[in-house]
Design a protein that fits this description.
The strands form five sheets. Strands 1-10-9-8-2-3-6-11 form an eight-stranded mixed beta sheet, with helices on both faces. An eight-stranded mixed beta sheet has the order 13-23-20-19-16-17-18-24, with helices on both faces. The protein has a three-stranded mixed beta sheet with strand order 7-21-22, with no helix packed on it. The N and C termini lie far apart (43 Å). It is of the alpha+beta class. The protein contains nine helices and 24 strands.
Length: 415
Amino acid sequence: MAYRACFEIPQTDKKHFKGSAPNLLMKLVEEIRGAVEIKLSFFLYNNPYLHSKLEELANRGCKITVFSIPLNGYDPKRVLIFKNNYQDSFWSSKKEYAEKIYKRIEAGIPNFELRIFPHTYIWVRQKFSRGKELYSLHNKSILAKFPDGRTKCISSSCNFAFGDPKHSENYLLVEDDRNTALMFETYFQLLEQHSLSQNEYRAFSDKSYDFEYLVEPTNLQDIFHTCYFTAPFIKYENMGSNHYVQKKIIDFIKTAKQRIYTCSQHFSDYESFDPYAQSIVKAISEVATERQLELKILKQTRQRHQKQGTRTTSAEKIFKQIKNTEQRYLSPIIHDKFIIVDNKILITTANFTSTQFAWAERHNMAYFVVSENKNYIIQNTFSEINSFHFVEDIDLVNSYVSHFNNLWSMANVII
């Protein structure tokens, strides 16, 4: 078994043709070169460089399946995009390039399929018009298989999206680990069952809103141990996947004896909308208080950056009361998502927010369609899709500690 991680910290605030982390993307492309089958689950799939490289692989016989969200989920706002060495630029939008790529795939590329997962989620009533829905597919993961039987499972904080702002990013690659490969295989199998081809999605959307796309969960026995996905179509041991994984994270935090470092875009997992969810913020504060650990909290956002900013403020107040604790922020740079506990690490695609660990089967999701002046109450599974890796590997941890320290040295102290 082999773990590899790659990192990128932006040197400019300009948006690049290759996305928020161009160098990271090029390394990712090298990792999957030579694969005979690739399954890719990306929140946004609109990167022309990534697509061109995948299309090259498909033309050489690699079977490629991309899972992503409907075009309604892409931002239509045009922004200034740079290319080459940031010398040339043009105006475009995330949606514009997604439309180009989606149409190109639909026209026919050998060995290449795009499947749409239109599931949405909302805890409370939301005004709605097309283009405003919240899609649950936030995960950025890849399963790649090679002719010699090797498998590579990759999860990234990065959206690899055309039009994204510059962020600090990382990806974790796990090669030939049975638990991880089994979880990835299971996830992609279930995602395929619950997604639609482009033709199927067109037929669905001609008659229905995306928020009317219903998903029922499948109950899995926990044979995975080190790798998990949260999803509306997954339960573990009869527990909603988001609740189950949150419990795993809290158990992981409770093993701490010397230190806890958190690095995330958002860190506001406090007082969830879901009364059955726990709180990672509270778990860390309890352990750090009891054992007088070294605690460092590093994030991108503060109250002024979020609609749910009061939870961010509450979390900051809790940590300020704990000895040996420092909090810093670096906005708008940090997009990484990991927690270091002693010499172990959790690496995820998820933000630590009040919605990520919420779960509800047949939850009443209330939408108000402005154009129809009509309320819709949809019973659906509330869940956000992300991947989680629990790793005990000192070399990997040290690489993330180094990345953390680089960001920490750049960040602003929260007083």
